[in-house]
Design goal:
The chain contains 15 helices and twelve strands. The strands form two sheets. Strands 1, 2, 3, 4, 5, 6, 9, 10, 11 and 12 form a ten-stranded mixed sheet that branches. It has a two-stranded antiparallel ribbon with strand order 7-8. Helix 1 packs across helix 3. It is globular.
Amino acid sequence: MARIAGRFRRVEPRASARSYLLGLLSGVERKNCWQMAEQAGHTRPGSLQRLLRYACWDADAVRDDLRSYAAENLAAPDGVLIVDETGFLKKGRSSAGVQRQYTGTAGRIENSQVGVFLALATSRGRALIDRRLYLPEQSWADDPERRHAAGIPDEVRFQTKPFLAGEMIAAALDAGITAPWVTGDEAYGQDPRLRAVLEARGTGYVLAVACSTRVRINHGRTAVRADTVAGRLPATAWHRQSAGIGAKGPRYYDWAWIHIGIGANRHLLIRRNLSTGELAFYLCWSPATVSLAELVRVAGVRWSVEECFQAAKSQVGLDHYQVRHWTSWHRHITLAMLALAFLTAVAADAAPQRPAGPHYFDHSLDPVTLTVPEIRRLFGAVFNPPAVSTARLLHWSIWRRHHQATARRSHYRRRTPDESAG
């Protein structure tokens, strides 16, 4: 809070921000304004709702503080920036950017919002450091009425997800983030403009692409599909290496790399699953010569962002919000990211110094290193308020039911035909 306190001009929103962060770090079941206000001992959720909607503070400035905080606490020479998106399932059509669209959260097309995120992963930990709410083109970007109702600024226009990713990467590098690599899935690897932006900045990348991607081998004139290239490789081209340590130990795959295009440091990287034989493909570029092991490491780091999403949603309520406004979405998401970065920084400081290397195992009988969920559990136990009185519980029960009755009457009034009509 000392880090971001100067972003709030008045003491009231500053105190509300502290309560909000403590609520996100608490064990409350649903981290929305109602339950977090009750957790904080407030009599109404109004102060937390004002923090998200009307209070005067800049979520982007707090995001900058969060990015610096994460960089300082996770600093390591092996940093990788990861771009990815996650969905937030919603009902109705009023939440900014919501529409029926594919989201990996559900694994199908659902009514949802989609956020594009940037994560920083190093050997010390990983954290989300930037975010953009994706604004669909036809249903939102070109609809002035919906834009106004959801509070979308006039300067915000439709941008593709890879474009949003490029903006966040550029902002992170300009802010001094030390990360020689960028990685992402096919949605970003297939975009040639994003790859060109990274090369222009001298930032290496290992980006997943589809099997149908065409590449030129040995300066050939004809481009060949990536899966065709894989099918022509001899057995000696494959090397078994670990893509990093997973929950059950090293994640071994067979890997092959082939020089493509022009320049000495441009490769097609191919991963083969040991049990199924399934192939995955990556386009790689680096400003200097690197080893196969380094490309494999970066490719394996990409899964860190999925772990960030899982921790952010399960531990600090990234997807628990009940807001529709553009500003409110960015404010809640930023504070949730800050709460996760705090837990990650504490975990990094608590981790013992151990030998580096992808094959290191800890065979001791000591407890495992403190994890983000365990730190949040301990933190909540220390900072939870004293036992709540029966009167306080009844007060909140009555308040919720009054509020629900008001909302129900409003819904009924809208849906009941006007008896005087006709």
